[in-house]
Design a protein that fits this description.
The structure is a homotetramer of 386-residue chains. Chain A is an alpha/beta fold. Chain A has one domain: Aldolase class I (TIM Barrel, Alpha-Beta Barrel). The first copy, chain A, is built from 16 helices and 18 strands. In chain A, the strands form five sheets. An eight-stranded parallel beta barrel of chain A has the order 7-8-9-10-12-13-14-15, surrounded by five helices. A two-stranded antiparallel ribbon of chain A has the order 1-2.
């Protein structure tokens, strides 16, 4: 297993979404009759899609709408929502800034300290709408923010950093004891990100309710360019799904994995599930909703990093309502709308009645996109019915 | 067989037309002396090419001209031809609409109900010209439309949906019993689309006269982007050809397969036959004929889908007469004209005197197109004779 | 050997110049001290490069200059040089025509019949300059033109068509008996094109003095697009070189192979030799010389084909004198000038003192060009000396 | 090992930086606590990065600043610094020339003879700032310049040509005896470039203090286009690292290798170390510093080559100070700034506490960049902390 890339040096070939496709089944199912339920801890969601903890995507209003539609939105406890009492004004400054100013303005905005009382306030605003409140922080602040969030009534707590491991070494600062934290918290804890079988097994042994998969997903990812680091999502998801299944076999506990990042289209989401995901986490597609606080702009939480920024503010535009992005009708044909329609149609076509069945559907390695074929192939769809 | 794409997860590598090429033979044949006959049921055609059941491609006049030239045009029974007494007016609206309006106008035009009396009328108009009438519907309407078409004198009935399987599950609606339908019909039934060995075997056991091959062919296909679904045509055709040969071995019945979609140039058609096709079905190349009702525009039947549209209206332009596209002379050098000339020249060059021999010619995997090489290589053709 | 591209269907992977690179040797040689001699029949040439039999490349004056510089130019006996007493006027019309008119004008110009007395005249004009005269025709006219050419004093006769085989089948016309022709001719006969081991062995058994290698070389080749036909030049050259070596082993006769087409840069020429070529044939690079009759335009002999044209008139521009293209100094850094300087420097770097040694140098498969890397890598050259 | 590229012809697959990625570790480390020390001879450097011996990158002032920051800058003894007493005026002419004039002006500037007294002068200017002086020449001038440099107080002498081998054959001129030169010199000698296991072993046997790795690195490299020559850096570095380890095992002497060229981003540098490099040599990234003498322009030492130029003058722009490029803060997010921050963050993420550990981290082969994925993936970075 692996190719020789040099004398005494082997490397595995890893795959991303663009390299694979799914195969129609011998049995097909009416898409209206498939089951897409996702369960984390005791909470069940009919939409197995999470909105990323990014400031251009999730604020209180977005989280409420997402909850009402059956999905999950993660509010970042270290973004503008907890740094500013009135984040709308700050978000306006970001969306109104020129391309040239953007990074500098972002860097300055994020130097404002986090106000801990705002953490509880945001959670209570979400809970007031009777939808689940899901919030996130980096490991260094998990102990402190986790306690506040739990007391404020949060339903799920997410610990997220570029790479999370059980064994983080530092003499400079005290590192988070993940196992201890998970057992101490009374609400489900989701942790990430990770991409390997072994690291996922170690994380799962700490007792989280879910694990986020994805480091430098997709080949154009900034993390991969800046640090050389990253595993494409097809391989990362399949490897971590194997760890989940192994953990399940050993302990009887099924800890779902959530593929995070690198999915651009409905088809990519379908593929993530086929690779073994229990749910997916998405940013950009939601940044394009009318409900998104970024007003058509999007930026990662590493963008305002003071010393080694990765990513930049990007104009994604506003293309429809959150409901439309999730359930259609699509007025774009590029796969960026009606994500749930795409998922159920795909499940019907491969004959998967549940996500668990979709996780075992046949995958092929198929040639990547050639521009010359675009014109002709775009119109080849036949069959107005399903 | 297959590559590891992740732990416990293997995937086959599949191929599209751009990845392969054909190899000249040790024997060559005068192109004028090769035999391209295609037989379906008892009908024989000297042009083994079908025009797709798309509204921008086939209307009554086109079907008549195609029949006279020795090929087959499939009239879609669910398009504008059966929804409107005077489809020309509707087609004008489509071709005159702006790029922005097109999808919306298409969506609105296709909400008009199908008038069943027009089904018979269209078929009789085609038959009046003494050429075969070939028509299509989706599985849900096959029972009803098949009966009408047969009574009106249709020669072949085509059942077509994105993915057709013998076992389609639904509690919501009654599914088509394909075997029962095929045995009940007195005219040949062609069914599709499918892409796998096993599904083709199951479909062939139902007794159709032909099977259409192609789901999400080509890498840029909308179905693949939106649903993640699709098998490139080289592999799909070879797999289904193997099913045809296996079915033939088991039952003595040779059921031809028709590769549908993903062919842009004469060379792609040649490759489809080399992969095992008995005939090919083509849309875009014919949408560019003077005879095509789309007047230089082209759209798939999934484009006006109300909830999850795939594909869009595309301007392909008008480049020549149907006769010219099929038999030349070509005034374009891109392989989009004189498709039969390309096919016979290719057969001559590889030394195949029949389509059956072409199906066994040597295929190579060859590097895909590099732009840098274009300038120099375009002019490298030598030898004015063949 | 070969990959499964579908059930019961295997295909070899073939390679083009863009996919490979050469490896520096453990020994290096002063480039001024390597030997590049190419021998065909009893004729020796210090420049192992032939100019293609194309009307935009070779006329009498070009052939004379090429001969003086030590190389070989092939004059096409079926182009404007033998159709028109004063071809300059006709060539002017081609170079002065607009892009839109070009194909039509070419088609009309090539309907003028060939004047046999011009064949002898052109050959005598070349011979008058005391350089070798090398001319070509298609197989159908070889018997007649070969005799005329030989009598007029031609030194080498080239028979060239897209695909040449010993066994060409036709009831319509009489086919050329290649073996008989070669033994009848008193001057060396070069024949092509071919790309396979077996066809090359059959051709060599007919007794030619050389064989041309290349059908649809390069991925963007028109023949490949229009007919689906073609083998990339790395594999074609290596396979036919193996046939040459086998023929040599069996008969003691060494029949050189000439790789024809698909070489854009000095590097591609070096690679062709490394794959086993004894010489290379090039069109476009020479079409850009001040001496070329095309005046910066270039077209293949299949371009004016009346029914199935392949290729088009292309503007390549004029970038330098023939001497400069062959020996430098290069004023462009893209590898299109000083081809012999590139060849000798490459031979020095891999430690090959002769073409025969270069044919055995190490080849690697190396990733194709990525645009992102261009900026930085273009400037990385270090070392002003050798 | 190797693929068949033709009959009787095999080739290894080689890899470049774009084809690979690094995998996060099961253990992670605080980036501030990793050790990046590079040792050559008895000299230790905390920045394992060398600035290339290019005239647009290194002059005396740059070398001094680089030395103060802990790295190494190589001054080319055959560039404008030793040809002109006042190189600033000449450099101005280069940066002020138009794109069209540039190559010609460069060619004319480099015809000025080298003034040997300037060699000693430049070295003394650098030494006056109490930082190491590192200088380079081609093999033909090494004997003469090496002696002058050593006497003037240089700390390291670099011999560099496109391809350096122990066995260079020439009757025309006397070749350098590398082993004799290394033993005669009292300061460490670095030699390059090379890319193969066997050539590296031979060079190391001559007793150099370091070896430069890289011939035609990257696919777009001019050397590869012009000469067909080159090995991608991943494979070249891994192969030569294996030679270093073998030499170490045999002799007990650890001779570091320096990967030179083809690194565009922080990520590429990280990957070079992961492939086995002890240090890296970089040009373009430093050409963009405020301190670089090229004032935003960059050219290779082969650019002004009179007969076979490779590369051209390129505008790279000025994006920050040398300190910023090396240590941040980055105001660009493309990986071209804060190279040391990228390196230490990568080491932390893979759990490597030293360069030697980084050399053994897991590498994967990952799909190359797809443009479609760029928009969405650029913003996917999550986690403001490390």
């Amino acid at each position: 297993m692996g190719m020789w890339i040099g004398r005494n040096r082997k490397a595995r070939i890893c795959y991303g979404f663009d390299e694979i496709a799914l195969v129609p089944g011998d049995v097909t199912i009416n898409p209206n009759e498939v089951d897409t339920t996702f369960q984390i801890g005791d909470l069940k969601f009919k939409v197995p899609i999470l909105a990323s903890a990014m400031d251009g995507v999730v604020d209180v209003a977005f989280a409420i709408e997402m909850g009402k539609l059956g999905g999950i939105a993660v509010l970042n406890l270290e973004g503008v929502q907890t740094r500013y009492k009135n984040p709308a004004e700050v978000l306006d400054r970001i969306s109104n800034s020129s391309k040239e100013e953007a990074t500098q303005i972002l860097q300055s905005i994020y130097t404002e300290p986090i106000q801990e009382d705002l953490i509880a306030a945001r959670i209570r605003e979400i809970k007031a709408a009777k939808v689940p409140a899901v919030v996130s922080s980096i490991p260094q602040r998990a102990e402190r923010f986790g306690k506040i969030a739990q007391e404020a009534g949060a339903d799920i707590f997410v610990i997220q950093s570029t790479v999370s491991t059980v064994r983080h070494l530092s003499k400079e600062y005290k590192t988070l004891d993940i196992g201890n934290f998970c057992s101490k918290m009374k609400i489900p804890v989701v942790i990430g990100n990770t991409v390997t079988y072994s690291a996922t097994l170690e994380l799962m042994a700490c007792g989280p309710a879910g694990v986020l998969i994805g480091v430098g997903p997709g080949a154009a990812c900034t993390t991969r360019g800046v640090l050389g680091l990253g595993v494409p999502q097809v391989t990362a998801t399949a490897d971590c799904a194997a760890a989940r299944d192994e953990h399940h076999k050993r302990t009887g506990k099924y800890i779902p994995i959530i593929t995070d990042g690198g999915m651009n289209k409905g088809g990519d989401i379908c593929k993530a599930f086929a690779c073994g995901a229990d749910a997916v986490m998405i940013g950009s597609a939601f940044a394009r909703t009318q409900e998104a606080p970024g007003k058509g702009f999007h930026w990662g939480m590493a963008t305002p990093h003071s010393n080694l920024p990765r990513g930049t503010r990007i104009k994604v535009g506003v293309t429809g309502s959150l409901k439309q992005i999730l359930f259609g009708p699509a007025n774009l044909d590029d796969g960026s709308q009606n994500l749930m329609g795409a998922l159920t149609t795909c499940m019907g076509s491969v004959g998967a009645s549940t996500i668990r069945e979709l996780q075992r559907t046949e995958i092929i390695i198929a040639p990547s996109i050639k521009s010359e074929g675009k014109l002709f192939q775009t119109v080849q769809g036949v069959g107005m019915g399903k």
